[in-house]
């Protein structure tokens, strides 16, 4: 095969019989190099019209239904280069004619471009077609496209297409299918160039320079004109007059534009590289500003321009940006780490982006169909699951921090403050704020996440309370003020948290009550340790002549001064427990005296007990104790001890048993032993007492006295006097 001719400024030769297939510039291609282009010479039969029809039909369909990822800006520049290269080749005069005779039309510098027939200089066509078929009176279609006179360019293309279809129908090209193929290829390439220019206009619309409203209106009109010109594919399947789907091409370009705009923000840095949650929050804030600014521009400038031509643009841009933001958030969600970053994503998606005033206007038209979720349900569920997992660890860590703060206060021996008359510790405020803050934050995202967060806080608090109780009671900071402050804290948590989250924190009731009881018990133990030695001098001969009870009551009054700074329910409980303890210990000393009284001393002892009972009653009444049921215990025993009319002892005994159903037979024996009534009377009284005790047991035992317990906790040792009384 002879070697191809070489022309200095012309293209490399191509066999005239080789079909010319239009090439759409691939993504990323900037320009074609003449040094890299080569043609393969093949011997073969002359291709038929059907072959060209199929080839150009595929090329045209690829161009009109391009990949959404195609860089239409590059396509625009490539198409302009194609048109200008053609004109330069045609302007080279005879050399170009000679080169075209060798290489065949439509090939310039190794690329297929519109042939000379498109610029009216092909006189060799067997059809005898006249010049300037794609050229107006002053400008070619390529120039019109370059100048963005889209409607004029389309009208010329439509005119040429109509002529080409008519000539094909008249079998003008039956003897020269190559000529028909060249002209059809030129038509397809110009259509593709016009489509590329549409995409370029869309991409520039939201750029810094923008696009003139008249251009946008003309774009809308040319899309509608194409739809009217090509309403449906030809019945014979011909590639001419095939719908170009420019509306779909425009929508794809809008989506690419929105995606590129969003990627300007999201491509900067990923959450893992940002400065934690603050970096992610800043990135999302920038994303929101860009989307808001672009959509406001669409609303104020772009949409009116399209609407003037009867073309809806707002919904297309809204859906495009929604999809771009959704894709961006999917990528950010994949790399998000830590509780804070996950919450920032969830909060931005549910509260910022989904807010009605996100775009700054309440008058924007909503899309005809609801927008899809910003995050897919499975992604949203995974984010919530990951968030709650991190949240459990974070809340547990927060409770550890609260305990450390309290321990540092104990080490520093800081006395609790008195706020609104009550001892106060930061514990209740810290816990309340921790729970309320996280539950409120979760509630801003979803009701389900709020309930989950509340359960996490409840479990963590249930584990924290026993740890706090144990750490405090084992510390060296145990004192009446600190114990009272902790009682107040537990009571505040129980009332305020349960009131704020009704029906959600019932399981907190048990650990809070347990902690409160433990602090109350330790508080009482401190008082008992102070006053217990003072009970030893009661019911002695020295007691008959001295006021040994007053020092004990003074300690009780001093102790009650701390209870004034305890919340009322717990303060009353503790005061009544102190009242019960004093009466119980007094009776315990009376029922097991160190010395026995006879005659006058017994009567004096009875009177002394009455005076002590009155002093105790007056003291606790002054302190505000509501345990009035305790007031009859000591007087009843004193009446039995000092009663001179023995038959009335039975009446006093009945009063005692009815008032305190928890009294036992041993207690009755110990009381009778103090009196020494004799065998027969003792037996008679014991029998009657047992009948009363059985009747009280049938009536409900301690419940008959409102659940009050007094004698049940008094242990009475068996002494010789008691044995004699029994015998």
Automatic annotation (TrEMBL):
Keywords: Phosphoprotein
One Pfam family from the record: Sec6
Compositional bias per record (Basic and acidic residues), positions renumbered to this chain: 32-45
Disordered as annotated region, ranges: 1-73, 90-112, 117-136
Keyword Phosphoprotein part of the UniProt annotation: yes
Domain of life: Eukaryota
Annotated GO CC locations: exocyst
GO MF annotations, alphabetized: SNARE binding
Keyword Phosphoprotein attributed: yes
GO biological process: exocyst localization; exocytosis
Family the UniProt entry places it in: Belongs to the SEC6 family.
The protein's name in its UniProt record: Exocyst complex component 3-like protein 4
